[in-house]
Amino acid sequence: MTRINVMRPWLGQEEAAALAEVVASGWVAQGPRVARFEEAFAEAQQARHAVATSSCTTALHLALVVAGIGPGDEVVVPSFSFIATANVVVHAGARPVFADVDPVTGNVTAGTVEPVLSERTRAVVVVDQGGVPVDLDDVRALCDPLGIVVVEDAACAVGSAYRGRPVGAGADISAWSFHPRKVLTTGEGGMITTAREDWAARARTLREHAMTISASARHASVLAPAEEYAEVGWNYRMTDLQAAVGLVQLGRLPEIVRRRRELARRYTDALAGTPGLRPVADPPWGETNFQSYWLEVAPERGIDREEVLARLARADISARRGIMAAHRQPAYAGYPHAPLPVTERLTDSTLILPLFHEMTDDEQSRVLDVLTSVPAGVRP
Ligand SMILES: *Cc1c(COP(=O)(O)O)cnc(C)c1O
């Protein structure tokens, strides 16, 4: 029996060839390939501007900075997210305020954000959790009239769709991840997309120490012009090595999403007859890329989430506990929050099943056998 992992990136000869070409070119840092990847990504996401970064965490940090978020500000974030969503608010000098999520999608809604707004709220970070598109229009209808910026943490959502367009296309600013746990990977890497030219321009300089002339432009001239540092920036650059892989991966994206949705449908159909297991599904307003195929284990199942995970582990299947809750982490012990009942329920009762491009039907059947083998309501 071989181990079934929760995720495995789909990488091939094309990525290897693209990397070899970058190495042969002698230019491996941020350069022409990053620029090409930005253009191609902006086009694919129907975004006006794209700015590549070293990760989604750094992209989110820059997004908050260019949106003018800083000390004294409150930023509403879901606790039900990877820790980086909250951390970037702290990096920006502001204070994260946790909102609860909708039990069906795992995403914030206007109804969960509204109760935690204050006069100090300057931004809301919405997350397309696990790839499920957030109902952005709903949150913007609440925030836009109040002058509150909505930042979309689309780390999980490349290839997901919202109201017939790619996720992020309708946001003022979005951030993306290309970590191998996500659907499209560059090893590490991230991107900002934004409709605002001024925000894109500032993010572009801030990712490179706020240098007035980019390193690649300086390198292109024999006698490099003197640069200036207009403000305090960071080194948040992507490399041309990563961008070359990203360009190949972007070409694979439609096939990756098609296959993930096919595997997800097979899971959902096969689990329909097992009471007490509620799988994630497309919301009415869009389509998920099924970056995370999660299940809620309800009491009717007769065994709890930990027992399901243990049984999968015994069959050498590596599933994962569902999405974490940041407010429960020691790092956020000092942050008071309103009750977060749905977040706590979902984080305690969900698990993420293996789903990756090259997963075989046999592998998927092995997972399904474990999930469906205990009759509902029967205690083992
Ligand atoms: C993965 C993830 C991030 C962080 O992405 P990195 O590229 O690893 O920095 C941020 N937000 C969410 C919702 C994520 O899932």
Can you offer a commentary on this structure?
- The protein is α/β, with parallel strands linked by helices and 380 residues long.
- It has two domains: 237 residues, 3-Layer(aba) Sandwich (Aspartate Aminotransferase, domain 2); 121 residues, Aspartate Aminotransferase, domain 1, CATH 3.90.1150.
- 36% of the residues lie in helices and 15% in strands.
- The strands form three sheets. A seven-stranded mixed beta sheet has the order 1-9-8-5-4-2-3, sandwiched between helices. A four-stranded antiparallel beta sheet has the order 10-12-14-13.
- β6 and β7 form a beta hairpin.
- The longest helix is centred in the C-terminal third of the chain and has 32 residues.
- The radius of gyration is 21 Å and the shape is globular.
- The mean pLDDT is 95.
- The site of pyridoxal-5'-phosphate has 14 residues, from α3 and α4.
- Pfam families: DegT_DnrJ_EryC1 (PF01041).
Architecture blueprint of SSEs:
Blueprint: H1 13-25, H2 32-44, E1 49-53, H3 56-66, E2 74-78, H4 84-91, E3 95-99, H5 110-113, E4 121-127, H6 136-143, E5 149-153, E6 161-162, E7 165-166, E8 173-177, E9 190-194, H7 197-206, H8 215-220, H9 240-271, E10 277-279, E11 286-287, E12 293-297, H10 305-314, E13 320-321, H11 341-349, E14 350-353, H12 361-372
Parallel strand pairs: 2-3, 2-4, 4-5, 5-8
Antiparallel strand pairs: 1-9, 6-7, 6-11, 8-9, 10-12, 12-14, 13-14
Helix pairs in contact: 1-9, 2-9, 3-4, 3-7, 9-12
The protein binds pyridoxal-5'-phosphate.
The site of pyridoxal-5'-phosphate has 14 residues, from helix 3 and helix 4.
